């Protein structure tokens, strides 16, 4: 038992240290910023716009991401489509790529023949808000698919078999059996999607640019104020970002019910 | 229902805003944000047109402009990027205008606690210094040239504590207190007035001074408007704003600090500092 | 009537060829076979989850081979039962109602009735994970039977249940079948279970149906050596037929001697000179008391008891045959054990009852 206690103690200490480190990081912002500055920032229309933009685009990205990744993850988990292994591997690539790389590729694409056609006839993405949503979705969706596929892989297929033998079509058994069992996973995917979109910088600034009162999200504002050596503003904005992220976590966790046990 | 409506409309309006196409899209180095923001605002009221400015590192926004083939005006924070833009043939060189001038100086902590008075003082033991990365930052390049010009490059290169990758970061690194001195631009003090002081170099020590140029982009669909804006940038009104932000706006005044220095142009890094050494 | 004609399928590494099955209405058909031979895949194919390579499946004359599972009217109860964890017992049971466009309130009375029959009425508002194995099994059955399927498929339903509950459930299912009369295909590896429940039993070994028939037939007269072994014949030997007439067969087995076997319709085709397999169940070997004499026609064998194992309800003895390395496994009830005063190392003679010896060619 002694060895076990030693091990338990060490790993507990490690976790506390890790979390403590992050908390210290956040608290260090307070060294520079004062409440007065926070209040001023709250009243600056530019900043209010940035916060609103960030939240709205992150939310839009989350919704789009869920609608695309849930069926995709299910297909990858259940179906035997040709080249399934290849598709699976490809999904992992965007996750590993640097966001700036992805942004640069989108920039290139939107300048090709097809891209130009889209820009002129469908929707303008470059240096516009749809561009923010587009590029963040590109980054967020593979992550969401990974989470959901992992989950679907653990849902026993026997549930769907039973449902089908009881008369449910494939679609119906997906909606009435698989989805209810996936609540936690979908919420986890939403949480991750929102958080990732909220904090996304490299790809966003490449495709949508850093345009005040237009495409300036919170992370872009942080970058700009650091670029302009406005340290106080930088840390105020960082605190806003941390706050929104925390809110996201709390909200989603509140919506997550007790875990569901299955065979 | 009211709450939902509000949310719906704010989302809707965000998307609607894209329909209001900008008349001018300017790609600018973030160093010039404070004055440019003010000037653009004034001009858009005057011309009743919409001006969008996208900021970033001078090189970064140049890449954006090149890849997207968009944009009306390119406004980098230093001349070397203008040279790059011209080499890439994505700007109209005949429209180039010099807006402000930059003098290399030694920046120190406010109050100069380490008592640095001359260039040679930088070699003193215990003095931590930083310059921008000469491959990507204009001021870095100029700093290296100054050191080489004054015969100190070999001695001092190993001493350099931090090699930072953007103009603003160079200033920030001093402002935060990581180093004691940097080779920076004369405007840096204005950026961090409470934390940075300036030690002017001896005019004979300065081989080159820089300027901030602006130009019309080849991709502009509103060339006339772009030209008019550039003119406005060079107007007394705008130059006053630049001066308020710490910039020197006339060549004559710039020459006071470095009468025999070259203006802009190219400087090639010495062999041993080239990448892959 | 459920008919499966020449079914062939290939799924991954599992292959089945020319599989045939006929289940009459109301029949309880048991497919008996060891684990891992693909009984589950077979059931899933009948239910419609896998494509056939060739063959047909007919339900009351209708070809359902190309119909999706939801249209076949075949209820499927997987080995894990598949009770939906996010629904209550009641909701689980009436789950099939929605698919048939029956409103919830219309389905409830039926559900109540069924749960009464199943003995789970008090559990309706509970969740599956709160309940015991036996209760969950009954809920799964209720859920499957309430939609009145044309065929009920049960995949080793009792394998994950504790022995005492298993017996109870077996009796329960037997009674249920008597009451409701559903048509069922039940797969299992437990031959006791097959024996109890099956009207008809098919033995599935090595990818083929080895034998089909009423349970007694299969159990006491397996037609092949593999079948015999699977069904619990532990004393199996090979011998050569040296004599054969209308009433008896005589086999010569090395180390054991001559064995007499009663002739019947099952071994009627065996002729002199053939090499055959023969065997006897552990329970059918008699140990003679020390002084009792025996005649050749009762197949006496001398030897020594070299090991004994005490089990809960009987003793297993290992009997070394003569001077050979062969042995018999003998099973005797405790009472006999005590009466005979058996000890390890004791010399003894055993008798193999002529009517109880099994013989087969393959």
What can you tell me about this protein's structure?
The complex is a heterotrimer of chains A (263), B (277) and C (362). By secondary structure, chain A is mainly alpha-helical. Helices cover 79% and strands 0% of the residues of chain A. Chain A has two domains: 1-31; 34-255, MetI-like (MetI-like fold, Orthogonal Bundle). Chain A has helices at 2-28, 35-43, 45-78, 84-96, 99-109, 113-121, 129-154, 157-165, 170-181, 183-199, 202-208, 218-227, 231-255. Chain B folds into two domains: 2-100 and 211-260, Periplasmic binding protein-like II (D-Maltodextrin-Binding Protein, domain 2); 104-205, Periplasmic binding protein-like II (D-Maltodextrin-Binding Protein, domain 2). Chain B has eleven helices and eleven strands. Chain C is 25% helix and 35% strand. The radius of gyration of chain C is 25 Å and the shape is elongated. In chain C, helix 4 (104-118) crosses helix 5 (133-145). Chain C is an alpha+beta fold. In chain C, the strands form four sheets. Chain C has a six-stranded mixed sheet, with helices on both faces. In chain C, strands 13-12-11-14-20 form a five-stranded antiparallel sheet. In chain C, strands 15-19-16-17-18 form a five-stranded antiparallel sheet. Chains A and B meet through helix 3, helix 5 and helix 12 of A and helix 1, helix 2, strand 2, helix 3 and helix 7 of B.
